Amino acid sequence: MKQPIRFVRIIGCLVIVLLLLTPASYADTPAPIDDWMETIEESYLNRAYIDMDGAYLGQCVDLAFFYAADIFDHVGFRQTIGLGNANQLFWSASDDYFEAIPYQGQPPQVGDIVSWDHYANGHVGIVFEVTEDRFFIYEQNSNMMGTAPVTIREIVAPDYGLPYMSYQPIGYLRPILETEPVEPTPAPISVIDVQH
Which domains does the chain carry? Predict the structure, then answer.
Protein backbone atom coordinates (compact mmCIF):
# COMPACT_ATOMS: atom_id res chain seq x y z
CA MET A 1 0.00 0.00 0.00
CA LYS A 2 2.89 2.38 0.66
CA GLN A 3 4.23 2.10 -2.91
CA PRO A 4 1.15 3.63 -4.67
CA ILE A 5 0.97 6.50 -2.15
CA ARG A 6 4.68 7.24 -2.58
CA PHE A 7 4.29 7.12 -6.37
CA VAL A 8 1.37 9.58 -6.25
CA ARG A 9 3.37 11.94 -4.03
CA ILE A 10 6.35 11.82 -6.41
CA ILE A 11 4.13 12.48 -9.42
CA GLY A 12 2.43 15.35 -7.57
CA CYS A 13 5.79 16.93 -6.73
CA LEU A 14 6.96 16.59 -10.33
CA VAL A 15 3.80 18.27 -11.60
CA ILE A 16 4.30 21.18 -9.19
CA VAL A 17 7.96 21.56 -10.20
CA LEU A 18 7.04 21.52 -13.89
CA LEU A 19 4.36 24.15 -13.35
CA LEU A 20 6.83 26.37 -11.53
CA LEU A 21 9.49 25.98 -14.21
CA THR A 22 7.20 26.40 -17.21
CA PRO A 23 7.92 29.73 -18.92
CA ALA A 24 5.19 32.29 -19.42
CA SER A 25 3.31 31.43 -22.56
CA TYR A 26 0.14 32.47 -24.25
CA ALA A 27 -1.78 29.97 -22.13
CA ASP A 28 -1.46 32.47 -19.25
CA THR A 29 -2.82 35.45 -21.16
CA PRO A 30 -6.21 37.16 -21.34
CA ALA A 31 -8.73 35.56 -23.70
CA PRO A 32 -8.51 38.02 -26.62
CA ILE A 33 -4.72 37.66 -26.79
CA ASP A 34 -4.87 33.90 -26.28
CA ASP A 35 -7.47 33.56 -29.06
CA TRP A 36 -5.36 35.68 -31.43
CA MET A 37 -2.27 33.55 -30.78
CA GLU A 38 -4.24 30.38 -31.41
CA THR A 39 -5.42 31.85 -34.74
CA ILE A 40 -1.82 32.64 -35.68
CA GLU A 41 -0.67 29.11 -34.78
CA GLU A 42 -3.54 27.41 -36.61
CA SER A 43 -3.88 29.55 -39.74
CA TYR A 44 -0.81 31.69 -40.42
CA LEU A 45 2.37 30.41 -38.79
CA ASN A 46 4.73 29.28 -41.57
CA ARG A 47 1.73 29.27 -43.96
CA ALA A 48 0.64 32.77 -44.95
CA TYR A 49 1.33 36.44 -44.51
CA ILE A 50 -1.17 39.09 -43.44
CA ASP A 51 -1.73 42.33 -45.37
CA MET A 52 -4.06 44.62 -43.41
CA ASP A 53 -3.40 47.91 -45.18
CA GLY A 54 -3.02 46.74 -48.79
CA ALA A 55 0.47 48.24 -49.06
CA TYR A 56 3.71 46.34 -49.72
CA LEU A 57 2.25 42.88 -49.07
CA GLY A 58 2.91 41.34 -45.63
CA GLN A 59 4.99 43.78 -43.65
CA CYS A 60 5.71 43.42 -39.94
CA VAL A 61 3.32 46.29 -39.15
CA ASP A 62 0.49 44.36 -40.81
CA LEU A 63 0.89 41.69 -38.15
CA ALA A 64 0.64 44.37 -35.44
CA PHE A 65 -2.41 45.88 -37.21
CA PHE A 66 -4.04 42.42 -37.36
CA TYR A 67 -3.28 41.91 -33.66
CA ALA A 68 -4.79 45.27 -32.65
CA ALA A 69 -7.85 44.70 -34.87
CA ASP A 70 -8.46 41.31 -33.33
CA ILE A 71 -7.96 42.02 -29.63
CA PHE A 72 -9.89 45.31 -29.86
CA ASP A 73 -12.57 44.04 -32.23
CA HIS A 74 -15.06 46.79 -31.32
CA VAL A 75 -12.95 49.51 -32.97
CA GLY A 76 -10.72 49.68 -36.03
CA PHE A 77 -6.98 49.13 -35.71
CA ARG A 78 -6.26 52.64 -36.98
CA GLN A 79 -7.88 54.05 -33.84
CA THR A 80 -5.96 51.72 -31.53
CA ILE A 81 -2.46 51.44 -32.93
CA GLY A 82 -2.40 54.06 -35.68
CA LEU A 83 -0.64 53.81 -39.00
CA GLY A 84 2.94 54.13 -40.03
CA ASN A 85 6.19 52.24 -40.13
CA ALA A 86 7.22 49.86 -37.37
CA ASN A 87 9.45 52.43 -35.72
CA GLN A 88 6.50 54.85 -35.54
CA LEU A 89 3.94 52.53 -33.92
CA PHE A 90 5.42 52.93 -30.46
CA TRP A 91 4.74 56.65 -30.66
CA SER A 92 1.43 56.55 -32.57
CA ALA A 93 -0.49 53.94 -30.55
CA SER A 94 -3.45 55.31 -28.59
CA ASP A 95 -2.87 55.35 -24.85
CA ASP A 96 -6.51 54.34 -24.48
CA TYR A 97 -5.59 50.92 -25.90
CA PHE A 98 -1.85 50.45 -25.37
CA GLU A 99 0.52 51.34 -22.58
CA ALA A 100 3.80 52.49 -24.16
CA ILE A 101 6.65 51.19 -21.98
CA PRO A 102 10.06 52.59 -22.96
CA TYR A 103 12.78 49.96 -23.00
CA GLN A 104 15.06 50.19 -19.95
CA GLY A 105 16.48 46.66 -19.84
CA GLN A 106 13.30 45.01 -18.56
CA PRO A 107 11.80 41.92 -20.20
CA PRO A 108 8.53 42.14 -22.13
CA GLN A 109 5.35 40.33 -21.19
CA VAL A 110 3.40 37.85 -23.27
CA GLY A 111 1.11 39.89 -25.54
CA ASP A 112 3.41 42.91 -25.80
CA ILE A 113 4.28 44.37 -29.19
CA VAL A 114 8.05 44.92 -29.26
CA SER A 115 9.20 47.83 -31.40
CA TRP A 116 12.74 48.21 -32.75
CA ASP A 117 14.22 51.18 -34.56
CA HIS A 118 16.57 49.75 -37.15
CA TYR A 119 17.18 50.52 -40.79
CA ALA A 120 14.74 53.06 -42.17
CA ASN A 121 11.42 51.59 -41.02
CA GLY A 122 12.10 49.59 -37.85
CA HIS A 123 10.56 46.25 -36.94
CA VAL A 124 7.82 44.93 -34.64
CA GLY A 125 6.87 41.52 -33.32
CA ILE A 126 4.31 40.18 -30.86
CA VAL A 127 5.67 38.36 -27.79
CA PHE A 128 4.22 34.91 -27.16
CA GLU A 129 6.72 33.45 -24.68
CA VAL A 130 9.17 34.85 -22.14
CA THR A 131 11.84 32.88 -20.28
CA GLU A 132 14.66 33.90 -17.97
CA ASP A 133 17.09 34.92 -20.71
CA ARG A 134 15.09 35.16 -23.92
CA PHE A 135 11.73 35.81 -25.47
CA PHE A 136 9.95 34.63 -28.60
CA ILE A 137 7.95 36.72 -31.04
CA TYR A 138 5.64 36.20 -33.96
CA GLU A 139 6.86 38.31 -36.85
CA GLN A 140 6.52 38.60 -40.60
CA ASN A 141 8.50 40.06 -43.47
CA SER A 142 11.59 38.13 -42.43
CA ASN A 143 12.65 37.98 -46.09
CA MET A 144 12.37 41.80 -46.46
CA MET A 145 10.12 41.37 -49.52
CA GLY A 146 6.73 41.10 -47.83
CA THR A 147 6.08 37.58 -49.06
CA ALA A 148 7.30 35.55 -46.07
CA PRO A 149 4.62 34.01 -43.85
CA VAL A 150 4.27 34.68 -40.15
CA THR A 151 7.28 33.12 -38.44
CA ILE A 152 8.81 32.81 -35.00
CA ARG A 153 12.00 34.53 -33.88
CA GLU A 154 13.91 33.86 -30.68
CA ILE A 155 15.46 36.92 -29.06
CA VAL A 156 18.33 35.94 -26.77
CA ALA A 157 19.92 38.52 -24.52
CA PRO A 158 20.90 39.04 -20.94
CA ASP A 159 19.22 42.46 -21.08
CA TYR A 160 16.37 41.39 -23.41
CA GLY A 161 17.36 44.04 -25.93
CA LEU A 162 19.81 42.27 -28.19
CA PRO A 163 20.47 40.85 -30.69
CA TYR A 164 17.69 41.80 -33.06
CA MET A 165 19.94 43.16 -35.78
CA SER A 166 22.08 44.52 -32.88
CA TYR A 167 19.42 47.06 -31.94
CA GLN A 168 17.75 47.48 -28.58
CA PRO A 169 13.97 47.87 -28.59
CA ILE A 170 12.38 51.29 -28.50
CA GLY A 171 9.94 49.74 -26.07
CA TYR A 172 6.89 47.59 -25.59
CA LEU A 173 3.26 48.31 -26.40
CA ARG A 174 1.19 46.51 -23.78
CA PRO A 175 -2.51 46.09 -24.59
CA ILE A 176 -4.88 47.62 -22.06
CA LEU A 177 -7.69 45.11 -21.89
CA GLU A 178 -10.82 45.76 -19.93
CA THR A 179 -11.50 43.24 -17.29
CA GLU A 180 -14.92 41.74 -17.36
CA PRO A 181 -17.28 43.69 -15.12
CA VAL A 182 -18.07 41.96 -11.90
CA GLU A 183 -21.77 41.67 -11.31
CA PRO A 184 -22.59 43.11 -7.92
CA THR A 185 -24.11 40.68 -5.51
CA PRO A 186 -27.63 41.83 -4.73
CA ALA A 187 -28.20 42.84 -1.16
CA PRO A 188 -30.36 40.43 0.76
CA ILE A 189 -33.97 41.45 0.79
CA SER A 190 -35.38 41.77 4.21
CA VAL A 191 -39.03 41.81 4.89
CA ILE A 192 -40.17 44.60 7.10
CA ASP A 193 -43.45 44.03 8.81
CA VAL A 194 -45.19 47.37 8.80
CA GLN A 195 -48.26 47.43 11.00
CA HIS A 196 -51.00 49.87 10.35
Answer: 23-175 (3.90.1720.10)
